[in-house]
Amino acid sequence: MTTARDLLVRGLLAGLLAGVAAFFVAYVVGEPSVSAAIALEDSAGGHSHGTDTGSAAAEDHDHGHAAGGHDHGTAGETEVPRSLQSTAGLATATIVAGVTLGGLIGVVSALGMGRFGRLGARGVPLLVAGLGFVAVYLVPFLTYPPNPPAVGSADTIGYRTELYFLLVAISVIAGVTAVLVGRRAAARWGAWYAAIVCGAAYVVVVGLASSLVPTYDEVPEGFPASVLYDFRLSSVLVQLTLWGVIGLVTAELAHRLAVRGRRSERTTALVDA
Amino acid sequence: MTDHRTPTAIAAPAPAPAAVTLKPVPLHQVLPWLAFAALLAFVAMYFVGAEQGATSLLNGTAVHEWTHDGRHLLGFPCH
């Protein structure tokens, strides 16, 4: 019989592959816009994100957030040079995100197996990864789209981070509730109508939350719209790669596991008979 | 769900339909794994996405700088 452990192991493996794939997408598709934004930031001279922190902060190119300032290392004054941030550092972030998300998706898939009507061993991980992508990334993205370096005020980073995680929490809780209620409703109305009603309820809840949180319009004047667009699009592609590869690989591995389990069950039955 | 009232279903029991044979894993078996995996993912996401940015458990900026590009491209607020 399939266990939580079986699917955790497969999810972790899928997450490792997804993290590596997401790194390559991020490096190839995303880094050009990050570099372009940093070059713009540097060529703008000492800027202070349009705040009144004064010329001292502007001179040493200080973002001045809670952890103390940092710069992007083109002047060679950072602890971690740009060449490492865009390679090993980037890979660390995508692989850590991939492995932990993969493990979580594996275990949630174990929970979902056999609990979504006729959805099979391939369908459940795909459903989990798809809903996860929407609830964890896409919905918060629509309210607070990610910004490249040089965009965003140091004064509001604290609020924006809190609000971003608040939106992730609201979206995930609303999504999980919609799925749990939807499973009950499916027994009564059928999966199609249950999915439509609970999906709509989820959209209303996150739409309300999104309309209630404050908006931040902090793109500096003259910042090229194309760089901003490229950066945000590549962020979507990186996350799509992450969740997509986890979903597909976990689905395939879970399917093979289920087929093997069925075959061994049949063999046992024959031996018993 | 398959309709077992149809006469054909009674006459010829289907030879194990492929997708329906998934057995749910008992809740009490999955929940500890779920709790642990969720906690681990949360902590990992915090360090990748927010440590030494808006909040800081460790001194310095090394974690922020090391994960800098990933933080931006994964969509977390960074500056």
TrEMBL record, chain A:
Q: Which InterPro entries match?
A: CbtA_put
UniProt keyword terms in alphabetical order: Membrane, Transmembrane, Transmembrane helix
Task: Point to the regions of Basic and acidic residues compositional bias.
Answer: 58-74
**Residue ranges, annotated region (Disordered):** 47-83
Look up keyword Transmembrane and say if it applies.
yes
Q: Which residues cross the membrane?
A: 7-29, 90-112, 124-143, 163-181, 193-213, 233-254
Q: What is this protein called?
A: Uncharacterized membrane protein, predicted cobalt tansporter CbtA
Q: What is the organism of origin for this protein?
A: Microlunatus sagamiharensis
The organism's taxonomy opens as: Bacteria, Bacillati, Actinomycetota, Actinomycetes, Propionibacteriales
Automatic annotation (TrEMBL), chain B:
Organism listed in the record: Microlunatus sagamiharensis
**Pfam families, alphabetically?**
CbtB
What InterPro entries does the database record attribute to this sequence? CbtB_put (IPR012667)
- According to UniProt, the name of this protein is Probable cobalt transporter subunit (CbtB)
**Does this UniProt record's set of keywords contain Transmembrane?**
yes
Answer yes or no on keyword Transmembrane helix: yes
Domain of life from the UniProt record: Bacteria
Chain ranges passing through the membrane: 30-48
Tell me the keywords, alphabetical order.
Membrane, Transmembrane, Transmembrane helix
